[in-house]
Amino acid sequence: MWKRKLQISRTRASRRNSTAPAEKTEVLSEDLLQVEKRLELVKQVSHSTHKKLTACLQGQQGKKLPLTTLAQCMVDGAAVLGDESLLGKMLKLCGETQDRLAQELIMFELTIERDVIEPLYDLAEVEIPNIQKQRKHLAKLVLDMDSARTRYYQSTKSSGLSSNLQPTGAKADHLREEMEEAANRMEICRDQLSADMYSFVAKEIDYASYFQTLIEAQAEYHRKSLELLQSVLPQIKAHQETWVEKPCYGKPLEEHLALSGRDIAFPIEACVTMLLECGMQEEGLFRIAPSASKLKKLKASLDCGVLDVQEYSADPHAIAGALKSYLRELPEPLMTFELYNDWIQASNIQDQDKRLQALLNACEKLPPANNNNFKYLIKFLSKLTEYQDVNKMTPGNIAIVLGPNLLWTHNEGNITEMMTTVSLQIVGIIEPIIQHADWFFPGEIEFNVTGNYGSPVHTNHNACNYSSMPSPDMDQIDRKQNDQSRRPLSVATDNMMLEFYKKDGWSLSFKNLPGIRFSQQSSLSLWCSYSFIQGWVLTDSQTDNFITFSRHVKFPHDFPLTGWDV
């Protein structure tokens, strides 16, 4: 009974073995198995890089390059604007440059496509897939070999022969031949696959060179593009430098003067000459704000060098506003950051003579361009004060409204600090310079430097108050020795310094002598707000009315002296 059950069990096991799949045999070495894993990774990376690199090509699928389209647009725009305009010249030059850059880009992309993109495609889509295809074929051959071997061994067991003995007969020979043939085919495929895998490993340096080629091609493309751009830049700059119409607002003074070939900034000369014609008697000039739209238009006109004098002659406040804006928008104040401390220290000097000398020293330290324009402006402002009875713009008033546009610090504080500085320091700098403009800047000046305006020549309206002026060729030592002779003639009483401006004629005497007689409207200008005039008496020569100053009092800047005796 037991023997019967054992025989049935063997029969069932035999049937299961005859129908079960053959066990797979691994025929590749451990090294080749690692290469197989690397093949898949390289394939993924190569495929992704190929896809992204192809997307970077701007001229793919026969499309026109964006640079080519841009170049054509610029050239067409240049034809519309014409070579007479700077913009037209720039468009033409830049359009030609963009076209040449497009040609360089085309050559670069062709090189990349031939030497990088196509080899990457072959690697990811041809070479590695072929190896993987062979690997699958080898797996099939190994399975066939294992199946043939299993059938052969089954026939051996069924014949009852020992495992050391080979079966005989036609069927056994056929199974053996089939097993040997399968093993032979597997070996051939394995050897070919192994060779391809080892070849792949050996050629990794070649695959890596694709990316070296990419960088080299990019470097060459950018080098040629840079050389092209560098060759064009001088031409572009030459067009810019030779173009006459250059903006001036917000530009450094020396840069504007150098580019325009001028000594006096265009906005300063244009505004001054127009104001000399139409604004000298305008009340509140530089103080009253102009129309914002009119000011903006005038600034834009000055910026492009196109100015309609007739249009703005009816609005002197706009002209004055444009001048103030130009001074304020300078990157560095006309009186310079470097000399700011010198100016402030000079304004703090109590002694009037020493204060004037310190201000003069600061003026002489100004750079030539700043000095010329400052002199030009001060001479004009001095002339403007001749009409102060009408325009109400005394030297002090002018200093208040224009001072902050002539001098400021690098880092301005809050509004309160700024206003304090303006009232106590900057005004004390600008006011005496305007009052004694012909002492600070002796000689006449031609306001209409370029001859574009019909403005008068400024004459020395205080000529009677000056002794001989030093020669411009005089050296610094001789100049200082003549400082006393250059100072305005004045009458000093205690700490007061009065300067009398001649209007029509006057005579000078003190007590028991003929008094100072002002036959027409004149003004008594003070160098400081507080003057000590104790003991002075002003008497009206017609009504015998008089004013006696019995103590130190505050004296007004502009005291009307028509018909009064001192």
UniProtKB/TrEMBL annotation:
Residues 1-23, 468-487 are annotated as: Disordered. GO terms for biological process: modification of dendritic spine; negative regulation of Rac protein signal transduction; neurotransmitter receptor transport, endosome to postsynaptic membrane; regulation of actin cytoskeleton organization; regulation of dendritic spine morphogenesis; signal transduction. Residues 17-245 form the BAR domain. GO terms for cellular component: dendritic spine; leading edge membrane; postsynaptic density; presynaptic active zone; recycling endosome. Keywords: Cell projection, Endosome, GTPase activation, Phosphoprotein, Synapse. Residues 1-15 have a biased composition (Basic residues). Pfam families: BAR, RhoGAP. This is Rho GTPase-activating protein 44. It comes from Lates calcarifer.
